[in-house]
Amino acid sequence: MTSFPPFPEGLIDGQVHRFAVRAYFEDTDLSGAVYHANYLRWFERARSDFVRLLGIDQRAANESGAGAFAVADLSIRYRAPARLDDGVLIETIVTDLRAASCRMQQKAYHEDGRLLSDATFRVGFVAPDGRPRRMPDGWRAAFAKIALEGNA
Fold first, then answer.
1. pTM of the full predicted structure?
2. First vs last C-alpha separation in the chain
3. Distances in Å between the alpha carbon of 114 and those of 35, 79, 83?
4. For 138-143, which contacts have Cβ atoms below 8 Å and span 24 or more sequence positions?
5. Type and span of the H or E element at 13
6. Which residues are catalytic, by number?
7. For a 10 Å CB count at each end of the chain, is N or C smaller?
8. pLDDT (tens digit, 9 = 90+) per residue, 28-44?
């Protein structure tokens, strides 16, 4: 297993983005385990920094009226709990790329290497009115460079 990246936005290693988080008290429930919804927050942060590292400026696109990414579909499985102070590594890969959307697989690993959770997300680029829109060519090209072979 790869060590945790030293930068807050993570790093892209080949086709994989790695993003480290720590489980804080606010992330846990009464049993001391990380509350299930916090995995979704961690996955979102990792995806946001992943696209930022690809040179995609989501904020500028949204503010200019071009559109924004929205989660269109997700499936998540919880395998083991993270607990207070645990280090967690989020790995993200692009598994499928379309004109207006891409599918990403994300996995959360405990710092000891155990798989904690895995999820599949489809994010679509949508116009301000909420309708699907072809993502900007530069964005699609950035995703195509790191998408799994044969899926761009």
1. 0.90
2. 26
3. 18, 9, 13
4. 138/55, 138/56, 139/51, 139/54, 139/56, 140/97, 140/99, 142/54, 142/55, 142/56, 143/54, 143/94, 143/97, 143/102
5. strand 11-13
6. 29
7. N
8. 998 999 999 999 999 99
